[in-house]
Design brief:
The protein is α/β, with parallel strands linked by helices. The protein has 3 domains: 4-246 and 339-364, Rossmann fold (3-Layer(aba) Sandwich), CATH 3.40.50.300; 251-337, no CATH class; 413-496. 53% of the residues lie in helices and 10% in strands. It contains 20 helices and 9 strands. The chain has helices at residues 4-19, 23-37, 52-60, 149-158, 183-194, 222-235, 248-255, 261-271, 275-281, 285-290, 297-319, 326-337, 339-350, 354-370, 379-393, 396-409, 418-430, 438-445, 452-467, 473-496; strands at residues 40-46, 77-81, 86-91, 96-100, 120-126, 134-138, 171-176, 204-208, 243-245. Strand 8 (204-208), helix 6 (222-235) and strand 9 form a beta-alpha-beta unit. Helix 1 packs antiparallel against helix 2 and helix 17 runs antiparallel to helix 18 (438-445). It is globular. The two termini are 28 Å apart. Bound molecules: guanosine-5'-triphosphate (GTP) and magnesium ion. Guanosine-5'-triphosphate binds at residues 48-54, 67-69, 71-73, 140-141, 209-210, 212-213, 247-249, 308.
């Protein structure tokens, strides 16, 4: 289903392309059109070395993003479905350079710089069917530039193709590497910068990454990981839909088919050693590297880079009984990575609402373009442009987004009494506005008397609470959304009679 807002945005961009001239504005309009017609764009962000690129590879089932122990991802990189497979570097001045996609061969620094030192955004097109329903955006670590946190974030985002890259994403996966005392303040700072990007618990989730390093070798990291993830899910609820604990490395190795037959043989010969030898050799990474256990140093370090110590132990345990083949080992490791829960969340909660999120992010970029003064642009056009952006923003489809967000905020709105909260849930969840059936909508709220007077009375009580100076921000926001929902129903009812 293509919602009407998408077509309106595409038409508006086509019109603006001729009116706003070339350069950065044109690049942004092209970016909006590409984004609005394509699948949802999910960004993976977080601290340096949190395992972002590893997770990107795991989600794609293909080792495309570079991963390393030193700082690695330096440019925002968007992976799209497309053919021929290629890399496009989009520069801030509108210039686009193309390179063939050859695995493990990236354009060098010279290819990706200009005389004025402009940065670029990389678009990589791959014939990977996992990209059909969601494009994935890999980002540099939040501390990879040497500014203070907030300005660094904004300059990082603003540097991407002359636009704010977070205006061009529709959903976010935020990685926490290890629980740290400043996680909350960092995420809050990130979200403060991103509120203009419309990230809410609906289209943002957290990931507690690299779970295998949470416990000492030989101990099970999952009880602690589950406890921390639950604690973070509660603490971050208004911002993140949920926090998933995962072992990204195991996920990447399993989904990308990185384990070779030779790895399988090496793991099997490890598994055949006595328990004591195995235990001693895998006490620590260093011990495993230094040990003289049956494998060459190269094979040992290869296994470590694909599985980590936890993964090697897990594989030995699975292979221990001698009946499991390599093909049987991989699904076990994938399950142990627990990436499937995150994958399912992205598919149901992000892709399921993709159209609404895409219109919302396109509107945010269009709003900036529409309200930027340009002496050479026809003022009459600018006023039409601004009116149309506002009209799309307050259209039914965008109100749906506000309703979904308000629904997410209701549990925290303790200034709203339980009966009114229940009324709002019924209104948001059951309201049949999408089909424009006002009677059904009204009946969802009040099955006994779905008449106009009754709805008006309800609308007024929400309005009173909205205008009450004692109401906090969340309460006022929810009241406003409910009031507008009632106004829509009333408008539909009068249109139908
Ligand atoms: N043991 C273990 N290592 C991991 C895991 N996830 C990633 N790594 C390793 O950690 C290192 C950094 O991973 P990346 O995916 O490059 O991290 P990043 O967040 O993209 O790093 P930057 O792009 O430099 O910010 C790599 O050597 C990965 O193999 C994990 O779950 N467990
Ligand atoms: Mg990276």
């Amino acid at each position: 289903m293509v919602i009407e807002g998408i077509k309106r945005i595409d038409d508006l961009c086509a019109l603006a392309e001729t009116e706003l001239g070339g350069g950065a504005a044109r690049t942004q309009l092209a970016e909006i059109r590409r984004g609005i017609m394509g699948p949802i764009r999910v960004a993976v962000a977080g601290r340096e070395k949190a395992g972002k690129s590893t997770l990107v590879n795991a989600l794609l089932g293909q080792k495309v993003a570079q991963t390393a122990t030193g700082t690695c991802t330096r440019l925002v990189t968007v992976y799209h479905f497309g053919f021929p497979e290629r890399i496009e570097a989009h520069f801030t001045n509108g210039e686009v350079r193309q390179f063939p996609w050859i695995p493990d061969q990236w354009p060098n620094d010279k290819d990706l710089s200009t005389e004025s030192g402009r940065e670029c955004l990389l678009h990589i097109y791959l014939s990977n069917s996992r990209l059909r329903n969601a494009s994935i955006v890999d980002t540099p670590g939040l501390e990879s530039l040497q500014y203070d946190y907030s300005s660094r974030t904004s300059s990082l985002m603003a540097s991407a193709a002359g636009s704010d890259v977070y205006g061009e994403i529709d959903a976010l996966v935020y990685l926490f590497q290890q629980p740290r005392s400043d996680d909350m303040s960092r995420l809050e700072a990130f979200v403060r910068r991103s509120t203009g990007h419309g990230l809410t618990a609906l289209n943002a989730v957290g990931v507690l990454s690299r779970i295998d390093s949470l416990a000492a070798a030989g101990d099970d990291p999952w009880p602690a990981a589950t406890r921390i993830a639950e604690k973070y899910t509660r603490a971050y609820r208004p911002i993140l839909g949920s926090v998933f604990p995962i072992i990204g490395l195991l996920a990447e190795t399993s989904t990308t088919g990185a384990l070779t037959e030779a790895d399988g043989r090496a793991l099997r010969s490890l598994a055949a050693q006595s328990d004591r030898v195995k235990q001693l050799a895998t006490i620590s990474v260093q011990r495993f590297i230094d040990s003289d256990i049956c494998l060459t140093p190269d094979v040992r370090s290869g296994l470590l880079s694909k599985l980590g110590l936890y993964g090697i132990r897990a594989a030995m345990e699975i292979l221990g009984d001698g009946n499991v083949e390599l093909s049987g080992l991989v699904p076990h490791l994938l399950r142990q990575s627990r990436v499937d829960d995150l994958d399912a969340h992205i598919r149901t909660h992000f892709q399921g609402q993709a159209e609404v999120f895409k219109v919302a992010s396109a509107c945010r970029v269009l709003r900036r373009l529409a309200f930027t003064y340009r002496p050479s642009t026809d003022p009459k056009f600018m006023s039409v442009f601004q009116d149309e952006v506002r009209a799309i923003e307050i259209s039914r489809e965008m109100h749906r987004l506000a309703e979904i967000q308000a629904l997410g905020a209701l549990p925290e709105a303790d200034q709203i009494d339980p009966a009114m909260r229940e009324e709002a849930v019924a209104l948001f969840l059951l309201k049949g506005w999408n089909q424009g059936d006002a009677q059904d909508s009204a009946a969802a709220v009040d099955a006994s008397t779905p008449d106009e007077d009754n709805l008006r009375a309800r609308l007024q009580s929400w309005q009173r609470l909205e205008n009450d100076p004692a109401s906090d921000y969340t309460t006022r926001t929810i009241c406003r959304v409910v009031r507008l929902s009632y106004m829509q129903i009333l408008g539909d009812m009068s249109a139908q009679t």
